[in-house]
Amino acid sequence: xxxxxxxxxxxxxxxxxxxxxxxxxxxxxxxxxxxxxxxxxxxxxxxxxxxxxxxxxxxxxxxxxxxxxxxxxxxxxxxxxxxxxxxxxxxxxxxxxxxxxxxxxxxxxxxxxxxxxxxxxxxxxxxxxxxxxxxxxxxxxxxxxxxxxxxxxxxxxxxxxxxxxxxxxxxxxxxxxxxxxxxxxxxxxxxxxxxxxxxxxxxxxxxxxxxxxxxxxxxxxxxxxxxxxxxxxxxxxxx
Length: 239
Known about the structure:
Number of strands: 9
Shape: globular
Distance between the termini: 37 Å
CATH superfamily: Aldolase class I
Helix content: 25-40%
Structural class: alpha/beta
Strand content: 15-25%
CATH class: Alpha Beta
Number of domains: 1
CATH topology: TIM Barrel
């Protein structure tokens, strides 16, 4: 189930030091994904020994606050609930990264009190544009159900959009902010062309500093909190 690990991360959960665990399955084929090796070359990423991971976290429990489970898409993993239960039994917090395609799993995990934080990718407005970002025809109703459940779940959360020139326009991103509304936290992530699934995107330059600030400025009037990740000139900008 676990095919990758970052033992210590200061970046994956605001204000928390976490161990990041990577699952391998995914039901999207996002052309800008940088974890695509799990899907296409899984033989290069043998499954990790959970007991060794657990021992590491127990040994370093004096500074590790929790675990971030990412992917791939973790909700596709049949062992996810068991893993989260073990994390919680260790006295650690648990964060789930998800693409929102399996709302029934998210709801179940929340009802079992196994999650402290959810980060859901909101890749495009909820219409025909979504397929541009995920390279398949997704079930928009399932994604919408996840968004609406998370918004009303009482669990701390964020929605995040990776902004990719040639895939996203300013209008696309602003439409996402409009849908979320004033009570929500939107994270805009700068595209990294270093290792995208679609090699043609290696030649695509990320939005410029000025373009990102312009997009963020257009979005911030619609959401309660906005953050930019990956804009090196500014570090991380919070409004």
